[in-house]
Amino acid sequence: DGAYYFTVINTNQLPYTGVMECEFNIAIADADKDFKIFAPDGSEVEYTIIDKYQDLFCTFTPLNLPGAVDVMRYKVQLYIENIPPFGYTNYTVKTGYEYAGETGGPALENEYLKVTFAGDKVNIFDKVNEVEYEDCLWFEDLGDWGNSYVFQPCEGDSPIKAKLDSIETVYANKLKSA
After folding, report:
1. What angle do CA 67, 55, 43 make, to 5 degrees?
2. Global confidence as pTM
């Protein structure tokens, strides 16, 4: 049904509220869309993806003995609220959502820089100095017949220039995107 579950256990003698790292698997067939995590009361839980990689999950069920399922393994940080002492809370992961990244195209941003992508151009805005650098990512390769100390250009050689070909959103959610 596109739903997955994981359990968070509090092994402490006091109630727990705070950030916790959790891991769970999603079948490859369901991993092409974003997912949301829900608390037992049905409220959405904000999370940040720390790691994501494809893996095989061995399963031993009466229907498939033994079996291996292709999964996408996620390691996330999420905010956990009010797990009772020596208790647990079950969370639901539902797949099938569109990525909720920022509108206006892909961007990388922190308190110092904002990197935007427009077509095959990479633009960087320096927030500290308020300077915009446009179309600033280029790669160039030249042949040479020198050694590690002296550059000797090849006669008749022309540079090979490469530009950004495509941009892909790997994941995007309220707290983090890549």
Report:
1. 100
2. 0.55
pLDDT per residue as tens digits for the range 125-150:
999 999 999 988 878 888 888 887 88
Task: Kindly list the distances between the CA atom of residue 93 and the CA atoms of 14, 70, 96, 156, 175, in Å, as whole numbers in the listed order.
Answer: 26, 17, 10, 60, 17
Q: Using an 8 Å Cβ cutoff, are 36 and 93 in contact?
A: yes
Pairing type for strands 113-118 and 107-109 reads antiparallel
* Tally of residues, the chain: 178
Distance of CA 133 to the CA centre of its chain: 26
- CA neighbor of 35 nearest in space, from 81, 78, 106, 92: 92
Compute the distance between CA of residue 55 and CA of residue 74 in angstroms, rounded to an integer.
10
